[in-house]
Design a protein that fits this description.
Elements lengths: L7 E6 L14 H15 L4 E6 L7 H6 L4 H25 L4 E5 L8 E2 L2 H9 L3 E5 L9 H11 L4 E6 L4 E2 L11 E2 L1 E2 L1 H6 L7 H9 L4 E5 L5 H6 L6 E3 L2
Helix pairs in contact: 1-3, 5-7
């Protein structure tokens, strides 16, 4: 068993990460690749839980911008995260990783309701747990849900898999002079208004002393490398 920096982590993935080059929906090859990345970390003896966004299917903020009531749009976005969670559960179980989906909005026909102590027990038994439906409340993002669940599960780190390999001073795709930060504090992110996660998520992680590690989910093997202290990433910690 390889040495890892953390023994229990939460991985946050955006819904967009599941659609590859598609305009919307799920790309099966991408879902399967991400499942294999999670399995590789799970086999290192790390207890893993996940939060997956729903932006590849429906984004509440976008719906509200088009005239929908924000609360209704957010609930639709939460349901989209359940679809993504079930897809990831299927991919993980097809490669032999026992997985449970727990939804903050009860829907017992397709998954378990969110129960903190049951989720902790699943992780102790070596199962991957996917938390769906955000916090169960409108006006909160899945970033905030990730920070909340990481706090409740006693995770030692929150890893955010993104399109880029860390936090930059500006968008590296549009600004050639953008520099990547090796390390930041939670307060740095808040005071500089760096668009890593929303402010509520950063504040919650800071309050519970949970480091946030930002890395590229599209780089093969990056999830396991980061947990071994290797690869390229930005760590946000006080």
């Amino acid at each position: 068993m390889a040495a890892t920096l953390y023994k229990r982590v939460l991985l946050k993935i955006s819904g967009e990460a599941l659609m590859a080059e598609r305009e919307f929906g799920l790309d099966p090859d991408t879902v399967n690749r991400l499942a294999a990345e999670i399995k590789a970390v799970h086999q290192l003896g790390v207890e893993v839980c996940l939060v997956i966004g729903g932006g590849n299917i429906f984004r509440g903020v976008a719906g509200a911008a088009q005239g929908m009531q924000r609360a209704s749009a957010d609930y639709m976005g939460m349901l989209a995260t359940v679809i993504n969670a079930l897809a990831m559960q299927n991919a993980l179980e097809q490669i032999g990783v026992q997985t449970r989906v727990q939804s903050a909005i009860p829907m017992a026909t397709v998954c378990e309701p969110y129960i903190r102590r049951r989720a902790q027990r699943h992780m102790e038994k070596g199962r991957v747990v996917i938390f769906a439906a955000g916090t169960g409340n409108p006006f909160f993002t899945t970033d905030t849900a990730a920070a909340l669940r990481a706090s409740e599960m006693g995770c030692e780190a929150l890893l955010k898999g993104t399109k880029v390999d860390g936090v930059y001073s500006a968008d590296p795709k549009t600004n050639a002079k953008a520099t990547r930060y090796q390390r930041l504090t939670h307060l740095d992110v808040l005071s500089q208004d760096l668009k890593v996660m929303d402010a509520a998520a950063i504040a919650l992680a800071r309050e519970n002393n949970i480091p946030i590690i930002v890395f590229s989910i599209h780089q093969p093997g990056a999830f396991a490398q980061v947990l071994a202290g290797k690869g390229t990433y930005t760590i946000i910690a006080d």
